[in-house]
Amino acid sequence: MDRSSPIAFTLDPGSGVPTYLQLVHQVEHAVRLGYLTPGDQLPKVREVVAALAINPNTVLKAYRELENKGLTSGRPGQGTFLSSAVEQVDLTGLTGLRRRLLTWLGDADGTGLDHAGIVALFTSTLRDFDERRETRGAGRRAGGGVA
Amino acid sequence: MSVVETRGLAKRYGRTIALQDCDLTLPEGQLAALVGPNGAGKSTLLNLVVGLSRPSSGEVVVLDGIPAGSLAALDGIAYVAQDMPLYRNLSAADMIHLTRNLNGTFDDAYAQRRLDDLGIEPRRRSGRLSGGQRAQLALTLALARHPRLLVLDEPTASLDPLARHDFMATVMAAMAEDGVSVVLSSHVLSELERVADYLVLISHGRVRIDGVVEDLLGTHRLLTGPTGGERDPGWHAVQETAAGAQTTLLARTVAPVPTAQGWESRPVTLEELTMAYLREEKPSTPWTLVEVAS
Fold this sequence. Notes:
The structure holds 2 protein chains of 2 kinds.
Chain A: H1 19-32, H2 45-52, H3 56-68, E1 72-75, E2 79-82, H4 91-110, H5 115-138
Antiparallel strand pairs in A: 1-2
Chain B: E1 2-13, E2 16-27, E3 31-35, H1 42-50, E4 57-62, E5 66-67, H2 71-76, E6 77-80, H3 92-102, H4 108-118, H5 131-143, E7 149-153, H6 161-178, E8 181-185, H7 189-195, E9 198-203, E10 206-212, H8 213-218, E11 220-226, E12 236-243, E13 246-252, E14 264-267, H9 270-280
Parallel strand pairs in B: 3-8, 3-9, 6-7, 7-8
Antiparallel strand pairs in B: 1-2, 1-4, 4-5, 9-10, 11-13, 11-14, 12-13
C-alpha cells in the first residue's frame, strides 16, 4: 500500500447531502483548517470505495468537482493531489463574518426566534443559497478526467 | 454501450403475468438497482437477463447485443442468486476448484487472495461458514471469473449491517478495479443512494420508473406548504399528504425554488422517492408520510 493520505473520508447518511458533495466538503474543510496542504495526495478511488462501500463513480464525481474548483489536480496513473494554488479564508475575514453573524443572532433573538427556529431559518436559507449558486455555476462547469 | 437491453420483454407463467412491456437500457460501468415489492417481477427480470428463463415475448440482449443465455453471454456474466448458491458439504477450496473447472476464465490468484483477506479457512465446509462469509465466498467465485456484468439477486437481504457493508465494499472495489457493471435487486433502500448509479423501480410486473439516480433526485422535490394554497404549475405530485393546514408533496419538478406563496422545498432522498412511487401504485391504500420538514 502507498503512503496513506492525510485525509480519511466519513459519511453522514442522515444529512441529506449527496454523497459526492460530502466528500467535496470534507476536502474543502480540511484545506481550510490546514489538515491538507499543497502536494498532499487524496486517497485512491479504490481505497475510498473499499472503506465506505460507495460507488466508485461517486468518488470520481467528487474528485472531478474538486478539480473543476481548482483545488486538486489529477496526475495520470498516480492519483489526485492538492494543488499549490489554494485559497484560504484569511483570519481577519473570518473574524468580521463572525461579528456580523453575532449581531444577526442578536436580532433574531430579539424577534423571538428560539434556537431551533434560528437553525431552521439558517439551514433553509443556506440551502436556497447553495441551490441558486449551483444553478448559476452549472453552466460553466466542464468535464475533466481524474486518474 | 449497454450491458442489458430489453424491448417489449414479457414473461408469463401460465395465466400469471410476471413481467410485461419491459423496455430498459442499462448503461455499462455502472450499478443499476432494481427495487420493488415482493412478487413485483424483479427476480423474473434477472432470470431473463442471465438466461435462466426464456421470454414469453419481446427480447433481451446483454453486453452490447448478445442474446441472453447464449454461450458468449454466459461467459461474460456472473450471477449470484438470492440464497448464495454453494454446495454446503464442499469446502471453500473445493468450491474454488469446482468453479475453476466449470469456467473458461477463472482467476485463481484472486480467489485465493480473497479467501486470505476474508479469513476463510480453505478446508472449512461452506455450510459451516457464517452468513457473511458464505455471501463473500459466493461473490468471490463470481468475481474471479472477471465478468463484464455481475448480477446479484438481493445479495445482502440476510446479512447483518457489518457483513452487508463488507459485501458491498467488495462489489464496489470490483467496479473500481475491474470496471465490472452491476445489476442488483435490493430491498435495502437506505443503502442504494450510496451505491446505485441507475434505478429501476418495478411493481406489478411493470417498470414504474427508471433513470439515472442523479437525474431522478434532481427532478423531484419535497414541498411543504398551505393546504389548498396556490401551487406552481410545473409540479406533478407523486405523493400528497395533508395534515390539517399543512400539505406535503413529493413532486416531480425541475425548479428547485418554489414561486408559489408559502411553499418550502428541499431535495428528496432516493429512499423517499422510491417509497413515494411504490405507494402511488396503490392509491386506495391509506398511508401517512412520516416526514419532518426542515
